[in-house]
Design a protein that fits this description.
This protein has two helices and no strands. By secondary structure, it is mostly helical.
Length: 85
């Protein structure tokens, strides 16, 4: 009644293979997760363009509101041309 060396080696080999398979799967999942978090250059450009367009629209809206407010202050309805002096 002794320990079967072939059985221990077989068991140890199967544990090493299982460990390597799990280790490789975890590394692959982590690599994929990191890549999905990093935006592509096109996504960065698109985001910057959207931000610039939104800022430009907000500026135009503010300017139009200010022009309309000045027109109301002058007694104009906003559609009349400002007189030059």
């Amino acid at each position: 009644m002794g320990i079967d060396p072939g059985g221990v080696i077989g068991w140890l080999f199967s544990m090493v293979v299982l460990f390597l398979a799990i280790y490789g799967a975890i590394r692959l999942a982590l690599k994929h997760d990191r890549q999905s978090r990093i935006p592509s250059p096109r996504e960065v450009e698109d985001r910057q363009l959207r931000e610039r367009v939104a800022a430009e629209r907000a500026r135009h809206k503010r300017e139009a509101e200010q022009r309309a407010a000045r027109g109301h202050d002058d007694g104009l309805d906003g559609s009349a041309a400002h007189s030059t002096r």
